[in-house]
Amino acid sequence: MKQLKERILSDGKCFPGGILKVDNFINHQMDPILMREMAKELVKRFSGHQINKVITIEASGIAPAIMVGAILDVPVLFAKKKVPSTMENMLVTEVFSFTKGRSYSVCVSGDYLCKDDKVLFVDDFLANGNAAKGIIDLVNQAGASLEGMGFLIEKGFQTGGDELRGRGIHVESLAIIDSLDNCTIKLR
Ligand code: 5GP
Protein backbone atom coordinates (compact mmCIF):
# COMPACT_ATOMS: atom_id res chain seq x y z
CA MET A 1 0.00 0.00 0.00
CA LYS A 2 1.65 3.15 -1.30
CA GLN A 3 0.68 5.52 1.52
CA LEU A 4 1.98 3.18 4.21
CA LYS A 5 5.23 2.47 2.35
CA GLU A 6 5.91 6.19 1.96
CA ARG A 7 5.22 6.76 5.64
CA ILE A 8 7.54 3.92 6.68
CA LEU A 9 10.31 5.43 4.58
CA SER A 10 9.75 8.96 5.90
CA ASP A 11 9.02 8.21 9.58
CA GLY A 12 10.17 4.64 10.34
CA LYS A 13 13.33 4.12 12.37
CA CYS A 14 15.57 1.05 12.39
CA PHE A 15 16.98 -0.38 15.56
CA PRO A 16 19.67 -3.04 15.97
CA GLY A 17 18.38 -6.62 15.84
CA GLY A 18 16.04 -6.00 12.95
CA ILE A 19 13.47 -3.88 14.77
CA LEU A 20 11.51 -1.23 12.92
CA LYS A 21 10.01 1.51 15.05
CA VAL A 22 6.92 3.22 13.76
CA ASP A 23 6.10 5.05 16.95
CA ASN A 24 4.96 8.27 15.39
CA PHE A 25 2.10 6.80 13.37
CA ILE A 26 1.27 3.23 14.57
CA ASN A 27 2.79 2.10 17.85
CA HIS A 28 2.70 5.10 20.17
CA GLN A 29 1.25 8.18 18.51
CA MET A 30 -1.30 6.94 15.96
CA ASP A 31 -2.43 8.43 12.69
CA PRO A 32 -6.15 7.63 12.57
CA ILE A 33 -6.56 8.71 8.96
CA LEU A 34 -3.83 6.36 7.76
CA MET A 35 -5.14 3.67 10.15
CA ARG A 36 -8.59 3.96 8.57
CA GLU A 37 -7.16 3.76 5.05
CA MET A 38 -5.12 0.69 6.00
CA ALA A 39 -8.22 -0.94 7.49
CA LYS A 40 -10.19 -0.23 4.30
CA GLU A 41 -7.44 -1.85 2.26
CA LEU A 42 -7.40 -4.96 4.48
CA VAL A 43 -11.19 -5.24 4.25
CA LYS A 44 -10.92 -5.04 0.44
CA ARG A 45 -8.30 -7.77 0.34
CA PHE A 46 -10.46 -10.11 2.43
CA SER A 47 -13.70 -9.27 0.65
CA GLY A 48 -14.02 -12.85 -0.59
CA HIS A 49 -14.42 -14.13 2.97
CA GLN A 50 -17.41 -14.26 5.28
CA ILE A 51 -16.08 -12.73 8.49
CA ASN A 52 -18.15 -12.32 11.64
CA LYS A 53 -15.38 -11.41 14.08
CA VAL A 54 -11.99 -9.72 14.12
CA ILE A 55 -9.39 -11.01 16.57
CA THR A 56 -6.11 -9.44 17.65
CA ILE A 57 -3.65 -9.38 20.58
CA GLU A 58 -3.28 -6.45 22.94
CA ALA A 59 -1.95 -3.87 22.77
CA SER A 60 -0.62 -2.83 19.39
CA GLY A 61 -3.07 -4.90 17.32
CA ILE A 62 -6.14 -3.22 18.82
CA ALA A 63 -6.04 0.01 16.82
CA PRO A 64 -5.94 -1.57 13.35
CA ALA A 65 -8.32 -4.35 14.44
CA ILE A 66 -11.00 -2.00 15.72
CA MET A 67 -10.87 0.02 12.49
CA VAL A 68 -11.33 -3.18 10.48
CA GLY A 69 -14.14 -4.32 12.77
CA ALA A 70 -15.89 -0.95 12.41
CA ILE A 71 -15.82 -1.19 8.61
CA LEU A 72 -16.98 -4.82 8.60
CA ASP A 73 -19.54 -4.03 11.31
CA VAL A 74 -18.45 -7.01 13.41
CA PRO A 75 -17.16 -7.34 17.00
CA VAL A 76 -13.44 -7.16 17.74
CA LEU A 77 -11.95 -9.55 20.29
CA PHE A 78 -8.48 -8.99 21.70
CA ALA A 79 -6.47 -11.72 23.36
CA LYS A 80 -5.33 -10.58 26.80
CA LYS A 81 -1.75 -10.87 27.94
CA LYS A 82 -2.62 -10.92 31.65
CA VAL A 83 -4.72 -13.91 32.58
CA PRO A 84 -7.61 -12.45 34.62
CA SER A 85 -8.81 -14.43 37.65
CA THR A 86 -12.42 -13.66 36.78
CA MET A 87 -12.50 -14.84 33.16
CA GLU A 88 -15.03 -17.57 32.49
CA ASN A 89 -14.59 -20.38 30.01
CA MET A 90 -10.98 -19.38 29.38
CA LEU A 91 -8.87 -20.53 26.43
CA VAL A 92 -5.12 -20.03 26.93
CA THR A 93 -2.02 -20.36 24.79
CA GLU A 94 1.67 -19.41 24.97
CA VAL A 95 3.25 -16.82 22.67
CA PHE A 96 6.94 -16.05 22.32
CA SER A 97 7.50 -12.31 22.02
CA PHE A 98 10.04 -11.30 19.40
CA THR A 99 10.52 -7.82 20.78
CA LYS A 100 10.65 -8.84 24.48
CA GLY A 101 12.57 -12.12 24.02
CA ARG A 102 10.32 -14.17 26.33
CA SER A 103 7.11 -16.19 26.33
CA TYR A 104 3.85 -15.08 27.84
CA SER A 105 0.34 -16.49 28.15
CA VAL A 106 -2.51 -14.98 26.17
CA CYS A 107 -6.14 -15.80 26.71
CA VAL A 108 -9.63 -15.18 25.44
CA SER A 109 -12.95 -16.21 26.87
CA GLY A 110 -14.64 -19.05 25.03
CA ASP A 111 -17.82 -16.99 25.56
CA TYR A 112 -16.55 -14.68 22.78
CA LEU A 113 -14.75 -17.14 20.51
CA CYS A 114 -16.91 -20.09 19.56
CA LYS A 115 -17.34 -22.75 16.92
CA ASP A 116 -19.60 -20.65 14.72
CA ASP A 117 -17.08 -17.81 14.45
CA LYS A 118 -15.33 -17.02 11.18
CA VAL A 119 -12.45 -14.86 12.25
CA LEU A 120 -9.97 -12.49 10.69
CA PHE A 121 -6.78 -11.92 12.69
CA VAL A 122 -5.37 -8.39 12.41
CA ASP A 123 -2.04 -7.25 13.84
CA ASP A 124 0.48 -4.46 13.36
CA PHE A 125 3.55 -6.58 12.54
CA LEU A 126 4.26 -10.06 11.22
CA ALA A 127 7.77 -11.20 12.11
CA ASN A 128 8.28 -14.87 13.03
CA GLY A 129 4.56 -15.47 13.28
CA ASN A 130 4.50 -16.38 16.97
CA ALA A 131 1.55 -14.15 17.81
CA ALA A 132 -0.25 -15.51 14.75
CA LYS A 133 0.45 -19.12 15.80
CA GLY A 134 -0.91 -18.40 19.27
CA ILE A 135 -4.11 -17.09 17.72
CA ILE A 136 -4.36 -20.16 15.47
CA ASP A 137 -4.17 -22.30 18.61
CA LEU A 138 -6.93 -20.29 20.33
CA VAL A 139 -9.12 -20.44 17.20
CA ASN A 140 -8.60 -24.22 17.04
CA GLN A 141 -9.35 -24.66 20.74
CA ALA A 142 -12.62 -22.79 20.20
CA GLY A 143 -13.49 -24.84 17.09
CA ALA A 144 -13.84 -21.54 15.18
CA SER A 145 -12.59 -21.08 11.63
CA LEU A 146 -9.78 -18.81 10.58
CA GLU A 147 -10.63 -16.86 7.43
CA GLY A 148 -7.36 -14.98 7.13
CA MET A 149 -4.60 -12.94 8.72
CA GLY A 150 -3.97 -9.30 7.86
CA PHE A 151 -0.93 -7.29 8.89
CA LEU A 152 0.08 -3.69 8.44
CA ILE A 153 3.78 -4.50 8.14
CA GLU A 154 5.43 -7.84 7.37
CA LYS A 155 9.13 -8.33 7.92
CA GLY A 156 9.77 -10.49 4.88
CA PHE A 157 13.24 -11.46 6.09
CA GLN A 158 11.71 -13.32 9.04
CA THR A 159 9.97 -16.65 8.78
CA GLY A 160 6.34 -15.96 9.74
CA GLY A 161 4.94 -15.05 6.33
CA ASP A 162 6.30 -18.14 4.54
CA GLU A 163 5.19 -20.41 7.36
CA LEU A 164 1.62 -19.10 7.51
CA ARG A 165 1.19 -19.05 3.71
CA GLY A 166 2.72 -22.55 3.62
CA ARG A 167 -0.11 -23.70 5.89
CA GLY A 168 -2.58 -22.48 3.28
CA ILE A 169 -3.69 -19.44 5.28
CA HIS A 170 -4.78 -16.33 3.38
CA VAL A 171 -2.19 -13.79 4.56
CA GLU A 172 -2.17 -10.14 3.50
CA SER A 173 0.41 -7.51 4.46
CA LEU A 174 0.14 -3.88 3.42
CA ALA A 175 3.90 -3.33 3.33
CA ILE A 176 6.66 -5.91 3.23
CA ILE A 177 10.14 -5.06 4.48
CA ASP A 178 12.83 -7.03 2.66
CA SER A 179 15.70 -5.90 4.82
CA LEU A 180 16.69 -3.67 7.70
CA ASP A 181 20.41 -4.45 7.28
CA ASN A 182 22.79 -1.62 8.13
CA CYS A 183 19.78 0.22 9.53
CA THR A 184 18.47 0.89 6.04
CA ILE A 185 14.81 0.18 5.29
CA LYS A 186 14.40 -1.82 2.06
CA LEU A 187 10.80 -2.31 1.00
CA ARG A 188 9.56 -4.96 -1.42
P1 5GP B 1 5.81 -12.33 15.63
O1 5GP B 1 4.86 -12.83 16.68
O2 5GP B 1 5.26 -12.41 14.24
O3 5GP B 1 7.15 -12.96 15.74
O4 5GP B 1 6.04 -10.80 15.95
C1 5GP B 1 4.97 -9.93 15.79
C2 5GP B 1 4.71 -9.15 17.03
O5 5GP B 1 5.91 -8.64 17.60
C3 5GP B 1 3.83 -7.97 16.67
O6 5GP B 1 2.62 -8.08 17.40
C4 5GP B 1 4.61 -6.75 17.09
O7 5GP B 1 3.98 -6.13 18.18
C5 5GP B 1 5.97 -7.24 17.51
N1 5GP B 1 7.04 -6.93 16.53
C6 5GP B 1 7.80 -7.81 15.83
N2 5GP B 1 8.74 -7.17 15.12
C7 5GP B 1 8.56 -5.86 15.33
C8 5GP B 1 9.23 -4.68 14.86
O8 5GP B 1 10.21 -4.70 14.09
N3 5GP B 1 8.75 -3.50 15.30
C9 5GP B 1 7.69 -3.40 16.16
N4 5GP B 1 7.29 -2.19 16.49
N5 5GP B 1 7.04 -4.49 16.63
C10 5GP B 1 7.48 -5.70 16.23
In short:
Helices cover 29% and strands 33% of the residues.
Describe the structure.
29% of the residues lie in helices and 33% in strands. By secondary structure, it is α/β, with parallel strands linked by helices. The chain has a single domain (2-183), classed as Rossmann fold (3-Layer(aba) Sandwich), CATH 3.40.50.2020. It has a six-stranded mixed beta sheet, sandwiched between helices. The model has no long low-confidence stretch (mean pLDDT 96).
Which strand order do you get reading across the main beta sheet? 4-3-7-8-9-10
Q: Tell me the CATH architecture.
A: 3-Layer(aba) Sandwich
CATH topology: Rossmann fold
State the end-to-end distance: 11 Å
**What profile does the largest beta sheet have?**
6 strands, mixed
Q: Which structural class is indicated by helix and strand composition?
A: alpha/beta
Radius of gyration over all CA atoms, rounded: 16 Å
Count up the domains. 1
What CATH first level would be assigned?
A: Alpha Beta
How helical, in percent, are the residues? 25-40%
Mean pLDDT, nearest integer?
96
